[in-house]
Amino acid sequence: MADNKAFISVDLEGLPHVVSRAHLYQDKPLWSEARKIATTIVAEVSKALLENGYNEVVIADSHGDMVNIDPFELPSGTILVRGYPRIRSMISGAEGSSVALFIGYHAGFGTRLATFDHTYSGSSIQRVEINGTTCSEFLINMLALSEAKIPVIMVAGDAALENEVRKFAPWATFLPLKRSLSRYSSVSSSMHELLGSLRKATLESIESAKRGEPRLVSVEKPVNLRVTFLSTGYADVAEYLPWAKRIDGLTVEISVENVMGALSVLELLAMASAGLRTLTT
Ligand SMILES: [Zn+2]
Question: % helix / strand / coil in the chain, to the nearest 5?
Answer without folding.
Answer: 35, 25, 40
